[in-house]
Design goal:
The complex is a heterodimer of chains A (393) and B (43). Chain A is 82% helix and 0% strand. Chain A has 393 residues and is mainly alpha-helical. In chain A, α7 (122-167) crosses α14 (308-320). In chain B, 84% of the residues lie in helices and 0% in strands. The chains are: A mainly alpha (393), B mainly alpha (43).
């Protein structure tokens, strides 16, 4: 029940957010806004999500996840409703940027995966995290056409109101995730001590830095790939197919990486993921652009898209234990969101400066190599075991 | 009996996911979607 509801909560929270890009053309046209007005609110949303995530995680660890998810669902629905009635840039920043950002921090990965990570036995944890992550990926894949259909048949304003009503479903689903932190009595370590321990653990810093790279790449590709393909003369059909392939294979990649994480070293799997990304991007820009290369790139990126999430979450749980899993993963996720912000911004900045994305693609390959290298020295051993043994890596 | 029921549940779930995926792919490539995609670069 916990896993099914966790899947649905992630499906709704991540899926709804995925369709925001569809609102850019009709909203900017009807309200007379510039693209920058819209884009700034979405960038702000990513930052608010990242900054508030560790706090949401800490509250969930201390007082239980259900309250945080209920508050997140309410903020999300309120934000979407106010988005529909925003007539100024400031109102849109508050609704789409701040409220939806807060809603996401309460109802997405950090909080939900913490509950799931604690609710299953250690040997099944990685697969369970992969399954829940796949639920979120499925939402991203399926709710985008849902948003498009709503806009087409009812207009963008009503579409936002329907999405707000849909996101309210998060609230009853939170009931299944209710209950206190089941790992609260496994150690007497305080939250501050846990954060200090993670901050001084080299592996956690490397893991967070590699997660920043993940955020940079996924945000850059999701926001700038369509423009890149159109600029290279590809039709909307090929561009949309690439996005659909990324979305679909992301479901398989999320679950697959979680499943593999239960059998193989999680840090080695992360090394593979970043290495595959480096190779896929390098081939994509080196080979002549065609339908085959675009689809191949879509499949490769989809398979490695959110596969990093269950592995990173699982690694944090394995090294530091699950008592403060939501908090510690949320801190790593803050790095991911900073990366997302930089990826979205840097892509546009470089394009405006040079009229080309080539430099950013090359930078993405280099970042992938760095991320893979950062994961190699991570010490995967449990800290609890090391403490008991009296040594520490 | 329990195993058979569990297998049936998984098969039904996979069939449902496959159907929703098919519908999603169709929706991605629908004329409305393609026009929306093209509009991203013209508004």
């Amino acid at each position: 029940m916990i896993m099914a509801c966790g899947c649905l909560v992630l499906m709704l929270s991540l899926g709804t957010r995925q369709s925001f890009g569809l609102f850019l053309p009709p909203m900017t046209f009807d309200l007379g806004w510039t693209r920058e007005t819209f884009a700034f609110a979405i960038a702000l949303q990513n930052l608010v999500w990242g900054i508030s995530q560790p706090f949401a995680g800490a509250i969930a660890d201390k007082f239980g996840a259900a309250r945080v998810i209920v508050a997140g669902g309410a903020c999300y629905a309120l934000g979407l409703t106010l988005m529909a009635y925003s007539s100024t840039g400031l109102a849109f920043d508050i609704s789409a940027g701040i409220l939806v950002g807060l809603g996401l921090s309460g109802s997405a990965f950090g909080v939900v995966m913490g509950v799931v990570g604690r609710s299953v036995p250690v040997e099944k944890r990685s697969a369970a995290l992969g399954l829940v992550g796949a639920g979120g990926s499925f939402g991203q894949f399926a709710l985008l056409p849902y948003g498009q259909t709503l806009i087409t048949y009812s207009g963008w304003l009503n579409a936002l109101l329907v999405l707000a009503a849909t996101s309210l479903l998060i609230i009853p689903l939170a009931v299944a995730l209710a209950g206190s932190n089941t790992a609260a009595h496994t150690s007497n370590q305080s939250l501050t001590a846990a954060i200090r321990e993670a901050a001084t653990h080299k592996g956690f810093c490397y893991l967070s830095a590699s997660f920043l790279v993940c955020g940079f790449q996924t945000a850059f590709i999701m926001i700038h790939l369509p423009a890149y393909l159109v600029g290279k003369g590809l039709s909307p059909f090929e561009g949309m197919t690439a996005l659909a392939l990324i979305g679909f294979f992301n479901i398989i990649g999320s679950y697959g990486s979680g499943l593999l994480g239960g059998h193989y070293s999680k840090k080695n799997l992360l090394v593979w993921i970043y290495a595959i990304r480096a190779l896929a991007i390098a081939l994509f820009i080196a080979l002549p652009l065609s339908v085959v290369t675009v689809w191949g790139f879509g499949i490769a990126m989809g398979l490695t898209w959110l596969g990093t999430v269950p592995l990173t979450n699982g690694l944090v749980a394995h090294i530091f234990g699950v008592k403060y899993l939501s908090t510690l993963f949320s801190i790593a996720f803050l790095a991911h969101q900073i990366g997302s912000f930089l990826g979205a911004w840097y892509g546009g900045f470089v394009f405006d400066l040079s009229g080309s994305y080539t430099t950013v693609w090359i930078f993405c390959v280099m970042l992938s190599v760095v991320a893979a290298a950062l994961c190699v020295p991570i010490d995967e051993r449990e800290l609890a075991t090391l403490r008991a043994g009296g040594s520490r890596a | 009996m329990r195993q058979a029921r569990q297998a049936l549940m998984w098969v039904s779930l996979l069939a449902l996911l496959a159907y929703v995926s098919y519908l999603s792919f169709r929706a991605y490539l629908s004329p409305e979607s393609l026009i929306g995609y093209a509009n991203l670069f013209s508004c």
